[in-house]
Amino acid sequence: MTWWCKITKNKSFEIQIDKFSFDQWFRFEIKWDRKGDHCGFSIFFEPGPFLFSINLYDNRHWNWQKDRFYIDGEEHFGASDGEEIIL
């Protein structure tokens, strides 16, 4: 279950609570990315099959060739399949 809200034009806040198949005993992670798609601050807590996460992130995509966020309407390629995307 995920709840999210848009804070500003480019920033969003998200809380996720979920249950997955059991594959590890425990995981705790604090992450802060300044470059990349949906970069921002995240806290993950996984005791057994449960996931609790809080994210404050930028909802834009990163242009790795120009070392900046893509501009609205600028063409780029998706990281997963090379498909051209226009935002």
Adjacency order of strands in the biggest sheet: 1-2-5-4-3
Low-confidence parts lasting 5 or more residues at pLDDT below 50? none
How much of the residues is beta strand, in percent?
Answer: over 45%
For the record, give the distance between the C-alpha atoms at the N and C termini, rounded to a whole number. 27 Å
Write down the overall mean pLDDT: 85
Which radius of gyration do the C-alpha atoms yield? 15 Å
Which shape, going by the Cα principal axes?
elongated
- Extended strand count: 9
DSSP helical segment count: 0
The arrangement of helices and strands along the chain is EEEEEEEEE
Helix content: under 10%
Comma- or semicolon-separated keywords:
87 residues; 9 strands; 5-stranded antiparallel β-sheet; 0% helix
Structure characterization notes:
This protein has about 90 residues and is mainly beta. It has a domain of about 60 residues. It has no helices and 9 strands. A 5-stranded antiparallel beta sheet has the order 1-2-5-4-3, with no helix packed on it.
Q: What is the secondary structure topology, with strand pairs?
A:
Elements: E1 2-6, E2 11-19, E3 26-32, E4 40-47, E5 50-58, E6 62-63, E7 68-69, E8 75-77, E9 84-86
Antiparallel strand pairs: 1-2, 2-5, 3-4, 4-5, 6-7, 8-9
Offer a quick outline of the entry.
This protein is 0% helix and 55% strand. The protein contains no helices and nine strands.
